Amino acid sequence: MDNNIKIFADKRSVKPAEAAALYVELGWGTPREYSVARMKRSLAHCDIVVSARNAAGELVGIGRALSDFAIDTKILDLIIAPEYQRQGLGQAMMKRIAAAAKGTSIYFETGKKNFAFAAKCGYAKRGGLTVFIKKSPRDQSG
After folding, report:
1. pLDDT in tens, 12-67
2. Could you give the number of structural domains in the chain?
3. Which residues 6+ apart lie within 8 Å of 61 measured at CB?
4. Using an 8 Å Cβ cutoff, are 97 and 106 in contact?
5. 108-138 burial, b for 16+ CB within 10 Å, e for fewer?
6. Phi then psi for 4, rounded to 5 degrees?
7. How far apart are the first and last CA of the chain?
8. For the segment 71-97, what is each residue's pLDDT rounded down to a tens digit?
9. How far apart, in Å, are the Cα atoms of 36 and each of 121, 124, 125?
């Protein structure tokens, strides 16, 4: 991993506007879905937020997780700007999440293209379960 990259495990170090911009820039959603107001609420309610910054202080990665800190932790997402991928940053961020959730089972849902990454981080595919989703109408208040 690039020594100029710093990883933080303090959600207060992430500004909602910069996080929202990163999600939109990387194609995770629209500015409406990732508005500053919604990102502010998201960061406030996530139990674990890990971020990465380059030497210029720019946000280049973020990971969010929910945990009861006793039994289970669910990684919501882990995103890294393309120019910082495949350099060990993702693995380092996953380790920081695991350290924050020590003693819990950690669940990481991902697509096939990231199966090798998940395995490299020590995760094994859990058989017998299917992920179901029920999407709520988007909050129109911001």
Report:
1. 999 999 999 999 999 999 999 999 999 999 999 999 999 999 999 999 999 999 99
2. 1
3. 51, 52, 78, 79, 80, 81, 84, 89, 90, 93
4. yes
5. beeeeebeebbeebebeeeeeeeeeeeeeee
6. -85, -5
7. 37
8. 999 999 999 999 999 999 999 999 999
9. 31, 34, 34
Q: Looking at this protein, which amino acid is placed at residue 118?
A: A
Which residue range is the domain that position 28 belongs to? 6-120
Q: What is the CA radius of gyration of the chain?
A: 15
Q: Is position 78 within any domain?
A: yes
CATH no. for residue 78?
Answer: 3.40.630.30
- In the chain, DSSP finds a helix count (H) and a strand count (E) of 4, 5
What is the model's pTM?
A: 0.87
Asked if the structure places residue 139 within a domain, the reply is no
Q: Identify whether 104 is part of a domain.
A: yes
Q: What is the DSSP letter of 135?
A: P
Which two structure tokens, joined as six digits, stand for 137? Answer: 């109408």
- What angle separates helix 36-45 from helix 16-25, to the nearest 10 degrees? 110
* Position 52 in a domain: yes
Question: 54 is written with which tokens?
Answer: 């380059």
